[in-house]
Amino acid sequence: MKYLTIIFAVILFSCNSGINYPEGGFDYPANLTGKDTNYYRYPLLNIIPKDYRFAEYFEQYFYKQFEEPNLSILPLEKETFRLTYSDKSGKTVMLSFNKDEIVIKRGIAGGAYNWDTTRLTKLENEHLEILQRWFPFEHKGDIPVLKKRLDSLCLLYPQLLDVDYYIELYDKVNVRNKSFTYQTKKSIITGNAFREMVEQINASGYWKLPHHIDDGAGAADGTSFTLEANTAAKYNIVNRVGDPGNGGGFAGLCQKIIEFAGLDKKLDTDPAWKTVVVKPVTYSTGIK
User: N or C, fewer C-beta in 10 Å, the chain?
Assistant: First the structure.
């Protein structure tokens, strides 16, 4: 009986040992500070130009409006994939799935934030306009007249060189829209269905793709797709600007996930949609 128990345990462990993923993706960070958790695509900080990190910080506004977890900093209890879609009209759909369920979220009732410049002083408003237009200043050095002007401004206001100051102003001026809500729809799936979808993701070459794929046509019409993976051992992200229905590769993979979740069908009148009132969100100012 003892040996049968051991054999059963081995078989059970083997069945639940997880999916083997191809090489690629990013390791989770070993050491995190409170500020790090604001970066929803944390591994990209090590491979993108330093001035792009500013934009990465503000990704948190997008994800937190839908009360979404940060997939890039540590493994979740269940391996999770998240496909985010935005079209030229501004409509956003967020689709997550694990071995048990598919969760779809879509924004309604307008944008999640309002831009309130009255929360800043006159000088802060002037600084924000300068930073929005010219940050980072070192990239404007090839225009002598502009360089001279910016150098003078930075000499007078050295805080303009501090990226944290820019973030502080941006955080102040963004005010939560209390009327914003989103709708969510959940459906149960089987472990086999999850595994089959993940195997298609693995076979597509997803884990070896660059983190950003720019499609000229997509850039013109404003559509974008981002697929993230949170597995037990690693994280991955691929973003495409373009229509997923116009070809194979990553485009075709996005379309398969859309069909897998039933997003290719008419969902507007589905009674399964539930409206969610978003809870207040606190943002921590700070950037590396």
Answer: N
